[in-house]
Each structure stands twice: as structure tokens, then as C-alpha cells.
Amino acid sequence: MDAPGSCEGALLAVGDAPVSSGDPVGNGKSGVAAGSDGGKPQTSAPKTANSSDKPVANPGATVHAGRKGADFHAELGREVIERTLALMDEAKSQEEQIHYALVLRWAHGWTPQQRERYFRWFHEKGARLSGGNSLAGFIRKIHTEAAGRVPDSEKAALAKWLAPLTSPAAEAVKPRAFVKAWTLADLEKDLDALKDRKPDLARGRELYAAAQCSRCHLFKDAGGNVGPDLSAVAQRFQRRDILEAIVDPNKVVSDQYALTTLTVIKFGGGEEQVTGLLQEETSGTIRILTDPFAGTSREFYHNVVKKKEKAAVSLMPPALLNTLTAEEVADLLAFLGGR
Ligand code: HEC
Prior knowledge:
This protein is α+β, with helices and mostly antiparallel strands.
């Protein structure tokens, strides 16, 4: 995986601060790697605004440079911060967004507006990323560390965004009451009857999280990456196909998302079956995502894997819509850009 390595490089470029000692985030490399476990392996490394020819506000350099040098570095810092914030906004994957959040935590030369934009990200997006407790803890640590560097004079204005991030447990998806065991035919009929009603997009957005879609699917710039990106789903599919994919996920399972069952020889004897999404296979090892919600994966050496089978079952649970009313399904579809 490329992302953790480039993160570390960028980390060193920002402020030359020690990476392991005295770094409350711990080893940035393993932290990001743990977060990435929640999804498919990253294929491209994120771009970095601070290319290696331009060190970002290196505090060592400011000490030796005079007043003019300090101004210059502050200005350069502002510019780099601006560009990195823009990249963070545009970043598609959560790994990239986290990468920029990490890169920026030691940057110098912030304007108050830039700080607000940065810290807002943690509350509005960072705290909602999927990837389990280790990722949430990692993001909280980046936030705490960055917040610790805000000058006292700016703290009051930013109080709302400097407040600690709420833990995912506190925000955990509330269980919803059963409404109906929806079939495709029932849904189509009820949605047709609602076609003159104006959908509630804000409620659609809430339902995207409440019905757990966001834990696996990226939509625009938020959500998990266990399943396909749904940002353009309404352009790619008719309403019927979208509904069918949700009501009956096992009907069409693309190879990429089919579950794999491994029969492995346990250490000390015996066998064990492990089912999950095949995440990575190298010449020596095979890694399987066993719990997409918690982001837990397990890795085995090939020589302990006795059997490897494709299960024709989707990772996407069926019946997710059964706690939604027809109006709510209509709102969710409208949020996804469909009708
Ligand atoms: C546990 C993870 C998970 C959850 C939760 C989940 N999905 Fe999926 N979804 C997947 C996977 C994996 C696929 C690819 C499936 C396949 O080929 O079977 C998929 C496929 C889809 C597709 C077809 C997209 C395509 O490009 O082929 C749609 C539409 C979809 N999901 C919508 C939803 C909606 C809406 C929700 C919330 C009600 C949801 N999903 C919840 C994992 C999930």
C-alpha cells in the first residue's frame, strides 16, 4: 500500500517534528494502515501539496532566519495550507482525507478561516468515517494534537470545533423498528403511488446513515469503501436496478465483492473456517476482511490455508430497507440522485 508510506514522508516534511517519540498519534504509519483495513487496498497514493522541494514552515528554519524569514515562512505556510485544504476537500477516499488531516496538524501560518475549515472537517466528516474503533481513535488523536497547537487567542472563536470529537459509540446507529419485508414489486408499486410527492432530501441523507449504507458505500465525499462508490449510481442504474440491488443483494454479486471462505489449519492443530472479503493476496499471504463494520481483518500464510472457496453471497446484508417506510425509501433514493 502506498498511502501510509507517503503519509510518513509528508509528515516529516511538515515541521520536522519527531514522529515516534513525543508523538501522541503514535506511529503515523501504522495508524493509517490500521484505518485502511476498513476497505479495499488503496491503489493510488494521495497527492501532497507540499512537494519535497518546498519544506512547509520548518520551525528549525524560522529560528535561524530573521524577522523577514519568519514572515516569508508564514506566507509560504498559508499558501501550502490553502492548497492542502483544497486537496482535502476534493479527496475522494477517506484514506486521502485522513492523510491531509495528518499532514496539516503541524503546519504553521494558519489564518483563522483556514483553522476553522480544518477543524470543522473533524466534526463534520472525520468523526463519521467508517473503519472501526482504531480509525476513530486515530482521528481523535490527530484532532487533539492539532487542537493543542491553536494559540490561546484563537481558542474562543473556534471553541465549537475544538471540542472533543464524540465517540462513534455515542453516535452508533440506533436500532430501527421493523416496518415491512419489502419485495421489489411492493416497493415499485408504493413508490409509483408517491411519485407526485416532493422528496425530503435532508431526511434521505439521514437515512443513508441510519440504514447503514454509509458504513460501506462512499457517496460524494463521505462514507466507507467496502462496497462500490454510489456517487453516480443514479446515472448508472434505473430505479428498478437500484432497488433490486438493495432488496436482493445476492442476486448479482460481482466477483470483486463476493465473499471468500478459507479453511485454515489452526496453530496447534484443528481447522477453522474464516469468511470475509478477500482484501489482499500476495505470494506469501492472504488477507481477509472479516468484519467490514469494525474494519477487522485477518491475515494467513498460504501454507496454513487448506481450502479457498468463493461464496456466492454478497457482503451487503439483505433486508436493510425493512425498517423504512415507502416515503423513507423514496427520500433515500432521492438523496442518491434517483427517483
Ligand atoms: C456491509 C456493507 C454494505 C452495506 C451496509 C450496504 N451495502 Fe450496498 N453493497 C455492498 C457491496 C459489497 C456491494 C457490491 C455487491 C455485490 O456485487 O453484491 C453493494 C452493492 C450495492 C448497490 C449496487 C451498486 C453497484 O454499483 O453495483 C447499491 C445500489 C447499493 N449497494 C446500495 C446500498 C444502500 C442504499 C444501502 C443502505 C440501505 C447499502 N447498499 C448498504 C455493501 C454494503
